[in-house]
Fold Probable acetate kinase.
Amino acid sequence: MQDRRSPRIGLILSLNSGSSSLKISLYRLSSAQPPVEDHQLNPVSLIITSSISSISSTPAFSFSVVDTSLVSSTVRDVNNEPASDVHDHSTAFAHFLNYLEKETGVDRQRITQACHRIVHGGDYYKPEILTEESYHYIERLSDLAPLHNGTALSVIEACITHLPRANSIAYFDTTFHRAIPAHIASCAIDQEVANKKGLKKYGFHGLSYGYILRAVSRYLEKNPSETNLIVMHLGSGASVCAIQNGQSLDTSMGLTPVSGLPGATRSGALDATLIFHYTHRAGRISHDKSLATPVGVTEAENILNTKSGWSAMTGTTDFGVVTSQRSTDSKSALAFDLFVDRILDYVGAYYVKLGARVDALVFSGGIGECGAELREAVVERCACIGFVLDRAKNNSVDGVEGKVVEIGVKEKGEKRVLVCRTDEQLEMARQCALNPEFWE
């Protein structure tokens, strides 16, 4: 594992591992000169974006060139083409690298920094160049984030094999939440045990929240350190975050991502004893081979992480299908209404915690960015605290360019309602470009 500074002509690769997907973005530095920290500036430019989906079932590969300046030939865009040589996250990464060199002529040796999104960082509160010590620490944390940390580690191993000259750098979703006050992060259990075992609220989706904070504060023409937001990152994994003066005050996920809002396959917060009534096998180690993770998890963790959420309620992980069927299917209606209700629980609580000083209510993530009906259902119920939806704007978000889109009634005295198209890969690349520790 490397730990070296690189010349500022190197390329940055951002890797985002999901439970059955891998998103990849390749960037170049916007300037050979060391950039200055400025939330208004973007120190990197996107060259290529790629993804491999359905890795554990029928892998599909997508690849698109955004900037042709470094590409030696014309490359056609690939959209969800079958990838028969992909069997896991490691072979998915190898497939991308082979396609990159073969079709674009971009030498993989030009990649000097590989940024890895790690869901659970435990006590790490800044990006870490991966060493044997940090790798094994993240490996131990896989018990707390079995859907993601395990797959990210397999991509890290592949990266070290195929890009031996590049730094592999871990970026943690938990870092953004390091400012959460102790009385909010702590659990009402024996504190000696809690401190010894690290049992507290960590929070997740931090890379997304960091990106959203900068994008929205720029849109509002405010300094991030003076910005207060309630942000909803709504996707197959969903959470809410209260941001006060540019820092995380509270967030819905806790020790693990299973807490808080329900997701596609996650239960969200529930009575801690429910699982023992749900199954008498709760404490046993699961042998479910579909978990695609090298760590052992209990039946309880397996059920709450992979066999719950709106998938368990409706039979589909696609919330768009849940939304479209809710008028004719009682199961879908229940799942939709339950999700809205749980979101409102956190929006209301965070509005009070922020002392009613909220610059904007922000929707993000796949569902938050695309789900007009969900946004309407949430904002309509927030009218009592001053948020008013413009239905025409809400229904036309897809046709509006830009990272931030206004969907609220923008009148004097009305609070802002926004959609922000988040970009975790860009956030990692941006942080990498700005960190002098990684460059000559």
